Amino acid sequence: MRSTGRILVVEDSTFVSKVVCDILQKNLNVVCDTASSVKEALVKIRLYPYDVILLDYVLPDGTGIDILRKGRDSLKGYVILFSSLAQEGADITVQALSEGAVDFILKPGWGGMLADDFSRELVAKIEVLLSKKPVESTEKVLKQVNTAELKTGIKLVNCPGKAEGIVVVASSTGGPQALRKFLGKFERVNVPVVIAQHMPPFFTKSLAEQLCKTTKLDVMEATSTVELEPNRVYVITGGKHGVVSGGVLEIIDGPAVNGVKPAADLLFASAAEAYGTQTLGVVLTGMGKDGLEGSKFIKQLGGKVIAESQESAVVWGMPGEVVKCGLADAIDHLEVLPYRVEEIIKWWK
Questions:
Q1: What is the pLDDT of residue 117?
Q2: Is the pLDDT of residue 275 over 60?
Q3: Active-site option among 36, 198, 270, 332
Q4: Catalytic position from the list 33, 103, 290, 332
Q5: Residue 127 — pLDDT band, cuts 50, 70, 90?
Q6: What is the extent of the structural domain holding 111?
Q7: I want to staple 40 with a disulfide (CB 3.0 to 4.6 A). Which of 35, 135, 195, 203 is the partner?
Q8: Which residue in 36, 84, 171, 172 is the catalytic one?
Q9: pTM of the entire structure?
Q10: Is 172 a known active-site residue?
Q11: Nearest to 279 by CA among 316, 325, 327
């Protein structure tokens, strides 16, 4: 039987590499290669067009970040980082996500991750990525699209002043990279922006710090109740939910919704109830369907929803569900979405 993909596991532990390959070959029809060092990984990456690379951070002759940087021109597939649930691990993971990795997975034992959970999550992530071709580079996309229509990166979105509205964003797999590109196109925005990115605790703090370096907007992690202000981006802390009411973002605990915390559905629904017609939901790349029910609520109360297109999304699960249900007022490439936001919110009062 012909394989459906080729995987490279970069891990200095022979035992861990074997366990991971056994899981993948038992559940997916793939070829699984291994590398135990930066040097070996770079050689194999240049020789073979891997569909997915599973990357450990600490290696005998360097780090996973070294592979992302030195192998940038040779990497053809998706990279998933093995991570630990600690502040140090969070910082490293978010850095890797900013350097080109699309997702991460906790090793068994970290944060209560059990072997069965690890196996199930690993297979699910790989299966989704194997079903999609790698996203085209921005440069290639821009050459194929009318640049006047696209308003490429020369002009930043600038919506000065203050309006009684809100932009709420949902993102998951591939989200950190997408958020960097999305927010990087804004100079000023006349409303608050609240983000529900599926991440554990610690990770959202590192994400907010990384995003601060790529946008002119103020970015902060919201760990407790905070008053919402225009021209500021709030990243809901991992492991909690965020709901909007009376100009305030409240951080609450509670059971996972759609299997995630924070859940975009709760954020979107509360924003729609608070801001009505001046609510804009933005659904970016991600597995699953979080944001779907919240988008329905936004539309019911007169707000608007826009979704990332299949062409630019790493995983078209969340935005795809919104589009399939006919809820999207616009479906755009990630490079275009900021300007779509501008078209909508610049008229708000």
A1: 86
A2: yes
A3: 198
A4: 290
A5: very high
A6: 5-130
A7: 35
A8: 172
A9: 0.88
A10: yes
A11: 327
